[in-house]
Structures are given as structure tokens and as C-alpha cells.
Amino acid sequence: MDTPDTSISFGELGLAPGVEQAVKDLGYESPTAIQGQCIPHLLAGRDLLGQAQTGTGKTAAFALPLLSRIDPSLKQPQVLVLAPTRELALQVAEAFQQYATHLRGFNVLPIYGGQGYGLQLSHLKRNPQVIVGTPGRVMDHIRRGTLSMDGIRTLVLDEADEMLNMGFAEDIDWIFDQAPEKRQVALFSATMPPVIRKVAQERLVDPIEVRIASNSETVDTIDQHHCIVTRFHKLDILTRILELEPFDGMLIFVRTKNATTELSDKLKAHGFAAEPLNGDMNQEMRERTVERLKQGQLDILVATDVAARGLDVDRISHVVNYDIPTDPAAYVHRIGRTGRAGRSGRAILLVEPRERGLLKAIERTIRRSVPPMDPPSAEALSESRIDRFIADVRKTMSDQDLDFFYRLLSRIGQEQEIEMIDVAASLAYLYQRERPLDVKEDLPRPQRRDWSDERSRRGEGRNHSREGRPPRSERGPARRDNENLVSYRIEVGHQHGATPREIVGAIANESGLEGRFIGRINIQNDHSIVDLPDGMPREVFSHLKRVFVCGQALRISAAGATNEDSPARRSWEPRQDSGASRFKAGPGQGKPKTFRQSGNVRRQAEGAGPRKSFGSKDSKGFRGDHGPGGRKPRD
């Protein structure tokens, strides 16, 4: 939020009395920077080009002066506001309605795709003074003759950069051509790329330019942090954050529409009140979902960037970037959904090890660092769950009639000769079976890898080493330091531009396996052979099949196996072992286990002895536990 201009008050800006009274009723004391600079020029009828980030109060910056210039007695559209999304159109229309509380005879109408024409046509017949709409639906009504542009005095483009990014450039040009030649134009944009400058030069007349610069390019009241996490632990980290963070309402951003449904389903399975918000939902369903969040019937929305555009809900105290945005500007828009109108907010960014470059790009854009945060610890999670358990017990004691249960427990104690402390312990155990109070293990923290050292060890540079050795992909089979390596085939090779660096990076980042445990890499024309440690969890194997390298899916399979849907050594038998497995057990699954093959029995019968255990106590390796589609974590 930009700093309010405390040197002036709304009463000094020259607003219409009814509009000024509405501002007082809403509790606004001083205009923000953009409001203080824009309102006088718009009141004077000047064209205006405004640049400000989301959450700076720019809706009031144009709504208040335009309402002050409207003639409520004139029953025809006088102001047209174009917005990129339905959500933003509804938000702007709602703001106009709030500010016009004391204007008799005033009407505002939002029109957008996804809503039936019948309802919009009936409202258009009432000749609202302000129309707020998305470009496509506005064009439809103009062509149908149901929206007259003859009385339009002011045309506003809100979030113009987003509208142009969404492909509305030609629509906006067409709408401009239908508007009266003499009209006021106000263009607001978070960024000012050349295409916006071009629109301003062509469509605005002698415009006043207002730019609200912020040292951080984002809302100062938002507490921002990032957490480095492997893909396999993302859901675990998120659910721990949701348990430990005291939030009111939360908005979680993902990249795709499918991911909104998948993640919200997983959160609901963990007991959280979550719903998706995406472009595949019809407008009625989207509006109902947002209203449920506003009313406290939902706590979490899982959304895409477009679906959450213009979303303004007071309850949103936290924004979580589950998937880091590839466009740094999108990060600013995302976290702007919290910390609005001077309220505090918190933003948490989950970053996979391979995405550190995107984090740096975001930090350069906002011109400040996003400090790291540690994943919630097992100890903190246990303490939080124990505190809630105690609170539930105390609340039940004070709120419920427990006479029947006192009699029941007394009967159990007498008939079964069981001490009450034992009964209580058993009931407490049953209470927490799905969500253990005693969380055993911390989730692993990904470590930075020095790939230059790794490439040097493997001889993977583009040029030959000083000794003149060729790259690994052209060398013969490497010596196996650990005989428990298994050869896998991946469907990416020289013709795809693959190098050992890309292959090692993809496998290490996506599985959590440290690069030093990856053995021989033999790159052929259309495929490669990679040696990986024995005992790969099936969930890791399934995930690696879908990982892409150089635009090609790995489609990993056991080298020489007939069943490509299974790892090479499929008959795993988990057993306790003093050594730590490189494939570590998931949270709450007890001591690390190693995996041996049923073939060990045959080896012993043949006198060959059992296969060596997978790892030693000081070995490190696969950090991933059960990922998507795997066994549900116990904590």
C-alpha cells in the first residue's frame, strides 16, 4: 500500500458532497499517493496515464472523481470502465456502488462473459450511469445495440497491461472507435511496456502522467518469506504451514487449472476447508465460492493467476505461492491479494531447488530480498497438535454434558479392572491415529550442490579435461564404487541435445538424490543408460517417468526390462537394518529402512551370501519420501 498523503484530506480534493460523505462513512481519513495525485486531474476532465501496483487504491483514484462528475438525473451510460476479468469487473462495480451510497438515482452495472444475457439486458434497460465490463461482453452489447456509447463521457482502462497480455488489444481499439470523439480517457497499468505507451500516444490527449514508485515495488506491509523444498515434500510442507500459521483466509497459487482441483482435494483430505478457483468454473460457481470465503465458510482458495485477478477479500491474511510464478511481475500481483488497504499480510513462496533462479529474478524485480524460512519442524508440529488436543479436551469439558461418559468409564474401570489413566491414554491414542500428536521426523532440507565440482569429478565439461579425457558420455563403463547400482534406460539422448549435466540435474532435483550417488551415464543417440542406487521407491520411479529433459520426457524404465512400468528389481522386502537407506522413509514411518530383493534367498541357497545392505550410517542419498500418488504421510 502506498503511503497516504497526510498533507491533504479528502475534503480538500473537491469531491461532490455525497461522494465525500460516503468516503467518511467508510472510514477513509487521508487519500493514498495515487488518489491524491489523480483525483484533482480527473475532476478537471484531463486525460490521465497512471502507473501503480495492485493494492495502492487506484480504484478509488478514478471512481471518486468520476462519480463527482456524473449527473444522476441523466439516465444513460456516462462512464465505461474496461477490466480484464470478471472478478475485477465485479470488484470495481462494487466500489462504485459503495462510493455512490448518497447519490440518488445512481446505478452501476457489471457486464461480463459467463453471465446470461437476459439478466444483463434487463438491467441495461434501466440505463445505469456506469458500466463496468470485460472487453468481449462490452463489444457484444454494443454490436447488439443494447449498449449505447453516445453518452459516454469517460473511458477507463483498468489494469491495461493485463488486458493487452490477454489478447484484448483489438477489442479495446474497436471499443475506442465506438466512443464519442470528445471523451476523457484514464488508463491505469501496473507496468508500462512499449505497447501501453503506444496506446497512450494514440488514444490519450495531452495526458497527465502519474507514477507511484515504491522502493520495493510491492506492498510494504506484507511479510514475505521463501522456503526451499523438493517437489516430493511440497504437500507436506504446505500442510505443516497450514497447521502452524495463524491465518484467517488464505489464497494458494498454482500454475494450472488442473492443479487447483488436485491440490484442493488433497487439502480437504487433510481436513482443511479448501476449494479451487479456476477458469473452468462457471461464473455462478465462482461467485458462490468467493462469497463462501468472505462469509467464513471456506478458509482456503486454490487459484490460478487469471482466476484470482481482481480478487479483494478482507479475510485473506496469507498468500502462498505453491508454484513459483515464472513471471516476476505475477508475483507482485499475487501477493497483492493480501495486505490491502493498509492491512498486514503474509506471503510464503515455496521454491524447488532448480527454481532458485526464478527466486533471484523476483528479488531483482521487487528490489529487496525474500528472506528464507525453515520448514516447520516436527517438534513445533507436535507442540501445536498437543496444544489443540488440550484445548479440545477443555472445551469439551466446559461445553458438553458428559454424565453418560462418566458412567461409561466408571463401568469400564469396575468391570475390566482398568486404571482410568490407561483408559484415557487409549482414547487419546484413538483420537490422534490419523494425525499423530508425536511427530517423529523433520522433513529433509535440500542442500545446495556445487555442480562445477560434480562436473569436474565426472569430466562433464563441454571441453576435454587437461588430461585430454573425453566427456563421460563417450567413455567406457565407469567403475562401480557400490555394487548396489541398477541400470535404467531414459528416452533422451544426443539427438535431443542431452548432456550428463542436464540428466544429473533433472534426476537429482526431481528425486532428491544427491548427484554423487548417480553412477555411469552412457548417452546414445536416442536414449541413455543411467546407473542409480538400488531400492528406488516406486513413487519416485513413477514421478521420474514424467520428468522432462531438453523437452523430452525421461520415460525411465529398467534397462532390459520387459515391464516398463516397474523398476528393475521389483520384489522389494522392507526390513529393519542398522544402516541408513539412501531412499529415506517418509515422515512418521519409523527408522530408516533398506530394501533387499527376494532374490537374496536364492543367493544364500547358492552359497553367494545375501546382497549387501543398501547404505551405511553416514551415507546420504534420496531425500524424497512418498510423493504424489504415494502412501499418505502419517503426520
TrEMBL record:
Where are the compositionally biased (Basic and acidic residues) regions?
A: 566-576, 615-628
Q: What is its EC number?
A: 3.6.4.13
Query: What is the phylogenetic placement of the source species in the record?
Result: Bacteria, Pseudomonadati, Pseudomonadota, Gammaproteobacteria, Chromatiales
The protein's name: ATP-dependent RNA helicase DeaD
Domain of life assignment: Bacteria
Ranges for domain Helicase ATP-binding come to 39-210
| Primary location recorded for the protein, binned into one broad class | cytoplasm
Positions of transmembrane segments: none
List residues of the DEAD-box RNA helicase Q domain. Answer: 8-36
Q: Which GO terms describe its molecular function?
A: ATP binding; ATP hydrolysis activity; RNA helicase activity; RNA strand annealing activity
Tell where it localizes. Cytoplasm
Q: In what residue span(s) does the Helicase C-terminal domain sit? A: 236-381
Q: Where is this region: Disordered?
A: 441-483, 559-635
Q: Which InterPro entries match?
A: CsdA_RRM, DbpA/CsdA_RNA-bd_dom, DEAD/DEAH_box_helicase_dom, DEAD/DEAH_RhlB, DEAD_box_RNA_helicases, DeaD_dimer, DEAD_helicase_DeaD, Helicase_ATP-bd
Q: Please explain the role this protein plays, according to its UniProt record.
A: DEAD-box RNA helicase involved in various cellular processes at low temperature, including ribosome biogenesis, mRNA degradation and translation initiation.
Q: Which reaction does it catalyse?
A: ATP + H2O = ADP + phosphate + H(+)
Q: What is the enzyme's class at the highest EC level?
A: hydrolase
Q: Which gene encodes it?
A: deaD
Q: Which Gene Ontology biological process is one annotated for this entry? A: RNA catabolic process
- Organism equals Thiorhodococcus drewsii AZ1
